[in-house]
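Here is a typical sample entry:
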Amino acid sequence: MDDYQLFLFRNFPGIKHYLPILSRHNFAIARSIMMPRALICAIVAIAAFLSSSNVSSLHIPTTTHRITRRAFLAAPVAIAGASAVLGPSPAEAIVYYDPMLYGDAELKVAVINRVRQKVRDAITKDPALGVELFSLGIADSLKYNAKTQEGGGDGSVTKLVDSAASKFAVKLSKDLQKSTQITLADVVALASAEAYETFGGLRVRVQIGRVGGDKAATAQNVQAVLSPSWDASVTQTFEGAGLGKRDVAALDAVRGGMAEVVKNMQMAKEDEAYVNEMGETDFIPKTSFGGASQIFGASLTPFDDKYLKAAVKGKKGVFADDNVRAAGEKMSIKSGKDGAIALERVLAVGKVYTGGKIGDLTGQ
């Protein structure tokens, strides 16, 4: 952090609430027009006077607007004046995204593909890991509290549970960081999406570039989402993050369907260990043509609607809620569409864009 940034942060603590516009790129612009501190203080005093007498509000760019060079030139003064007059205001959200974190589109695609391939390889070897990774990504995002706009997918969910999925995500992140730039938050989100696809779901668009955020004092408790079965408290967590009951129905249907696939695979594995009198394993390949995956059936069996139908009929778990059950009665997650839409919505909550890397400002 340079002298200009230190001056603003030390003299105007409230400025930390406007981190999305204080990117490294924008500070570089500010340095090019460096003003004497005395002049800054004088302008701030004038801004404070005008704000108290004639100005009702200051416009701070929202998360969906890009900040122009001209707009930024006035930003330090406007922000400092707002902090001095209005005092600290709540942060808009907690998870910051830098769209350019991984460079150009080609580099970004390469990073995504590396994570997805590592995750898929691990899941095909241990399908149970896939169910855990799917829930882990959902839980990380559902820490977001829509009322306070704190929490969200920052990767910290790995500290809340001592599971195989949590350990896998942390290790994968560290291994990849030896040769490429990747954040734990992005690994958790991408792993969840890849787990869904590995079990037969559609490709889910995941916005990467999560660079962390402030510590959330009022983030939601997601322990229920991390449990092997979901109940009414999970529905409340979804709603607390600003999501609907259709999202709950779709993702629990997928989670339960994936768990059923794992259960059936484990039962089949126990049965296939038959050895005949000659000491040979009784194995009949699916086909004698093609590569190993075609012959030995390495891909996982896709999830279906059996769990969903049984849960809706028996009013089990989240489907004990009338509205969740009504949503479940009208959907089929076998095609993958409903699950993909719901998962994409969950992984995107609490999103705030920043024009550059803000690690120096957030302490990440």
